[in-house]
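Example 3.2
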Amino acid sequence: MVTYELEIDGRMCYVADCNDAINSGPFIFWPLDPVEDENWSEVAVLVHEMVPEIAFTIIGFKVDSWDFEMSPWTANDVFKGRKFEGGGKITLDWLVNSLMPEIEKKFNTAFILSEVWDTDKDLEVEKEEWYRTYYIAGYSLAGLFSLWTYYESCLFSGVCSASGSLWFPGVKKYVSEHELIDDTKIYLSLGDREEKSKNKVLASVGNTTRELSVYFGHAVKEGILADFKYEVEKGNHFNNPQFRLAKGIAWLLDSSISLPKL
């Protein structure tokens, strides 16, 4: 595994490349909690341990203003002293129009928005061999952002929302008003103590996550989603987040594996 850092349009990114060959294995995009910056590579190590035979590349990107950059829309009456001002649209624009094209160039792969076929007509490689699968994964508010980005962009083959902030006001309404992307995968997880909160908004995370799980599971039966998994973990929101996130990413890479327990 090779790890390194790079800056793209003023934002730091962290890459863990676990590939034995060029153009092999999916890309996983991951919004990093400021606390996760220092030990971000541990998630990639955990994923590799869970699916050692699978090549992949994790691209984490720094998030400085967590509540602003990860909130898909405005919700300012949840906590005292915290404002969720809907800056997710700015983050999504940077992700799609700056980070992903730059990664495409760096790894010499074809991205769904690019015109590589027009610029490289002389190449004898079949188009299918150029394409890499794209996933997005996040924990907590980044889990909500990842699920929202999956819907908004229609660019990802799967999403992991590990202990996602699905308590966020308006989540169920948003999901009900948007179509799932055919033949994709969704992974949700939640700690078994996360809904035991005195804050009524936070406490709603359990019911919301379970309701969405029923909905996504039904979508698999209808042949819309390729696969879906809901994991209930032990503990509260802060119990081993890296391990929980790694499990979700590993499942996206290989949904047939037996996931380890905390």
